[in-house]
Amino acid sequence: MSPKQMSLLQGTLDVLVLQALASGPRHGYGVAQWIHRTTDGTLEVEDGALYTSLHRMERRGWLASSWGTSENNRRAKYYSLTEAGTREMAKASREWTRYAEAVFKVLGAGGEPA
Amino acid sequence: MPRGVRKLFRLADLRRDAAADVDEEVRYHLERLVDDLLAEGLSRTEAEAEARHRFGDVDAYRRALERIDGRREKTMTRIELLDTVWRTWTHALRGLARAPGFTLSVVSILALGLGANAVMFGVVDRLLLSPPAHVRDAGTVRHVYARRHLADGSEFVGRSFTYPDYTDLLSVPAFRSVAAWSGPGEETLGRGEGARPVRLVAASASLVPLLGAEPVIGRAFTVEDAVPGAAGAAWVSHEMWERAFDRDPDVLGRVLDLSSGSYTVVGVAPPGFTGAGLRPVDVWVPLELHQVRVTGTTAWQEHRNWWWLRVVARLADGVSSDAAAAQATAAHRRGREDMIGRGDYDATAALLASPIVAAQDPDPSAESRVARWLAAVSAIVLLIACFNVANLLMARAAERRHEVAVRLALGVSRVRLVAELLVQSLALSTAGALGALALAQAAGRTIHRVLLPDLAMTSPASSGRLLVLLGVGAVLTALLAGVAPALQATRSDLAGSLRGEVGRARSSSRGRTGLLVAQAALSVVLLVGAGLFVKSLRQARGLDLGFDARHVVVAELQWNETLPSDERTTIYRQSLERVRRIPGVRAAGLTYTVPFASAFSIGTPRVPGLDSVPTHPNGGPYANKVSSGYFEAMGLEILRGRSFEPEDDAPGAAPVAVVAQSMARAYWPSGDAVGSCLLLGDEENPPCTEVVGIVEDHRREELVEDDAEWLYFLNQAQPAYRGPPQAVMLGTDVEASRMVGAVQAELRATSPQIRFASAQSLQDNIEPQLRSWTLGASLFSAFGVLALVVAVWGLYSVLAFEVATRRRELGIRCALGAGVPRLLRLVLSRAVSVAAVGVALGLAVAILAARAVGPLLFAVSPWDSAVYASVGATLLAAAVGAGLLPAWRATRADPREALQAE
Fold this sequence. Notes:
The structure holds 2 protein chains of 2 kinds.
Chain A: H1 3-22, E1 26-27, H2 28-38, H3 47-59, E2 63-69, E3 75-81, H4 83-111
Antiparallel strand pairs in A: 1-3, 2-3
Chain B: H1 3-9, H2 14-39, H3 44-55, H4 58-97, H5 100-129, E1 141-149, E2 155-158, H6 163-169, E3 175-189, E4 196-203, H7 207-211, E5 217-218, H8 223-226, E6 233-236, H9 238-245, E7 255-258, E8 261-268, E9 283-286, H10 287-295, E10 310-315, H11 321-335, H12 337-342, E11 350-355, H13 366-399, H14 401-409, H15 414-451, H16 464-490, H17 494-498, H18 505-541, E12 552-558, H19 565-580, E13 585-591, E14 622-625, H20 630-634, E15 638-641, H21 646-649, E16 656-660, H22 661-667, E17 677-679, E18 688-695, E19 711-714, E20 727-732, H23 740-748, E21 756-761, H24 762-805, H25 807-815, H26 820-853, H27 865-891, H28 895-901
Parallel strand pairs in B: 4-9, 6-8, 14-19, 16-18
Antiparallel strand pairs in B: 1-2, 1-10, 1-11, 3-4, 3-10, 5-8, 6-9, 7-8, 12-20, 12-21, 13-20, 15-18, 16-19, 17-18
Helix pairs in contact in B: 2-3, 2-4, 4-15, 5-13, 5-15, 5-16, 6-11, 13-16, 13-18, 13-24, 15-16, 18-24, 18-26, 18-27, 24-27, 25-28, 26-27
């Protein structure tokens, strides 16, 4: 996998994680479940990568974390969107949509008879 | 260290923390996943293998995460602190913006409370804490006072000195410089229509250099300007330069035509300069020159019984106040050696060198005493404002319990939440402080003018100390009002709050009730003060002075100081004839002294056949010389004999007298005053001055007298006192103040020699004596009403809040058949019981505090039951008023809503 592809995948994962947190704070396991559920398990991604994404975005200031008590009464680290994170999510999903449209266009063009 | 604090500030052992955090996070993930897989029916071995597979290389990821976090911890520590602060602020401010009604009421209450304090601080700062404006290095400037014993053995501290006393001090080595001044007194600037009074100070040439004030234009006057016979130099105030000269840069050389002669402007004082005193001054002129022009002699240079100067000195380098005072005392006693030897002066008289800042004055002025009260009262208002804000914050915290509980559950630390709530109250109090500043700017000047009219006040906001005070005030207010609500809010019990329980509101409502009671109590204290002062003022105004000052005009003529005495008398007589013809003037007469303004005594009159004359404990008898028409103008009744007739005014008429009732009774106990003789003067056989009538007792200069003073009146032809009359008194049919213009116009037209004619109601002479009560009454009333409004507002908001949170309970009560009267009673009884406890507490405090106010009151007991009762009733009525709207809302509680919510 070339670096370029790598960053594309990373960017995709980031958008998903941001999206997962848009509805409210969650812990890492919660984010993993959400992604698993919403993509019907089609997206195969290692849970560890999910955490690197979370931690990286926290470093960039897109996410804030704090320790809280989970639904099964255990200590868990919760992540929430910061203002910058919200902005980033809007930007990233715009770009992602544009990218996806471009890909569809290409695929669509290639599918039509010349 | 509690976890929250570390979280907030990211202190110490961050690396170890980061590793532990990553460990715990990953472990949690894996354990949850295993649990879930077990639930799906996998065996533990299978589940653990599957979890590891889904996670990827656990150790590699853990290291990666630690690396990311480590970098973050290192680079973000400082930024994160800033970021936390920033987020706390923005979150707090957004919270306030979401509740504009709440924010507005808190900010306005704080603006009122802090504003009242800002205005009062301006007064206290000016009166007590600051030297007069433009005094350089005020620490070494001293007012010189004399402490001596009077003939009756009582000690007193005098501010006045004679001219030779002042010159004695010039050679004291402990003083680098000494200056004297007299005034401010009134003189007339210009003549005729445009003439107007100005406030003039005659000062030694050393005054301005001693204080260190720098002129804006020109120079201060010098010793040469002060020499009798010099051309006359004047320093004008900055305010007068603006007002009278339109800030003309070429003002130097302009001639001021004043009553005491003409003076050339040589300089303009810096803005706000008032010399060594605090009263406003328009013009400064050289002391010695002015005195020669006014008195026509130089006798005052030697005279040691003429106390007309105030003295200020600057200490020489390194000399202490005490050392300087000792040297000054020695010089003072040396100068008065002869008098002390003759027993005419107190041998133990001592001079004091007292700091120019009034707070350390040995003999505080009435204004500075008032200022202390002002400060105390405005502090109470601020306290009430704080209680109120605390209450609103608590109510709001209770409202947000749910939100707080959720955030606590999400792991937002309690410290962070408390910090956020405190930041919120700090933001509120800062906004309040800004409002206070605006308020002080807008209302400050007016308040100063009303409360302390004789004081030169600079703009309150110009003082950096005020800004510091407001800053400190805002922070203290934020802490005072914010800490308890913040702690209470975050103590909230999670489960209960999330379940929507309202039962807990009860315990926090106890705190709110306490604050409401405290507010009500403080309002009661202020209102009782207001009641006592208003009643004092009414009693003092209602005093029977013997005459009705509101229907008497006092008119005085101003002329050049050089106009001879007999010409002045002639002009006064001419003007008397003219003003008598003004419609609405009942009667008019000339007088040599003006009640509540001036008086003279010409020794003790004797009575033929009486070896020793009786003496009055308060001195006197006091003489006056008046023309016919005087008693009628004053509205004084002649009890026996006759009044003065026009024949008595004519030059060469026989000397006659009218005696006031108490004096007649003391001198002629057998009641045969009319027809007897008064012997005036010290000669062996003075001519008989026949007593022709007895006039009713009346006040001469004190509103409050234990024993009526002994007064007697001489006709104008009486030779015992020479000199021109001092004023015309006019009795008017309508309120005297409405006649002032007509009288002035008529007087001005009498003679071109008249430079200016002043006229005012006699009541204006009495007002200064009423000032302490006027001040007390207006001050306590204003603050009392303010406190009441704030307290009632607070009561209303809490009741409204309680009704809102108890809607469900009220609805259930309604469903169970509680009628409207019962619901009304429920809310109103709460309002009244809070107020009743507050009233009881406040009255108790007032009863204790009243003792301190006692000496300031007039003819009112500090425990006047009518005042206490009406204040109590007012507060209860106000409480019912505050409860009406919430009570009405309570009756609208819908039982269906309550039941559906269950």
